[in-house]
Amino acid sequence: xxxxxxxxxWRIADRAGQWPPxxxxxxxxxxxxxxxxxxxxxxxxxxxxxxxxxxxxADTAFMxxxxxxxxxILGVVGWTDMKASDAPAKITRLARHPKLKGxxxxxxxxSDDRWIDDPRLDPAVVAMTEHGLVFDALVLPCHLEPLTHxxxxxxxxxxxxxxxxxxxxxxxxxxxxxxxxxxxxxxPHVHCKLSGLLTEAGDQxxxxxxxxxEAILDLFGPERVIWGSDWPVxxxxxxxxxxxxxxxxxxxxxxxxxxxxxxxxxxxxxxx
Length: 272
Fold this sequence. Notes:
By secondary structure, the chain is of the alpha/beta class. 37% of the residues lie in helices and 13% in strands. It is built from ten helices and eight strands. The relative contact order is 0.14.
């Protein structure tokens, strides 16, 4: 199977005061399964992982409802307040849904860069591991050091770094990002998504993406890299099929089955 392991759906009416703002006209509208279905067919993509975009449980309920009605949504990454006193009970409840595969706090939007490096998360992590859930890390480079501490403290929790930690490709910032990613990549339970990079490239796209994509493949190896589109955010930078084609070109053909499907199936336990 070819799997898009990172995409979103939303209704603008549900997002008052939330991103995206009206000035981002390409994505300031509703995006629902009927919008994505022809893109998947045109790109020969068999299924997706639907990922949260708001810090509320209504968004997770919305996604799980869509997953119940939409065969191509193979898994959902939701949200709950992982530091709340009742987090373990809420995680247990969410995990009853067979398509709930993981959780994602929106670390990039939290003012405390070290929010993730906190033992108060431990009860939630215990509940996640008990129910076979994974952790999506929506981080910027400034979060990589505290994320490393978190990952070392929880070796039994599968972790995936979304969008390569959003390196500032447009500024050509590479060396420090690479060093921090190398430290994380040394932990065998940490994976990385080949996604979102085109949006970070600015006017230098798409050729500026290659060194970062190749670094991700080199650091994590083809068995821990997972492809995703980040659609519809991708619309700010490019086209769905073109992004897939660019990634197919950057990843050696002998690793296509893993990076573009097999790794996502295994990591998210899709079908389990």
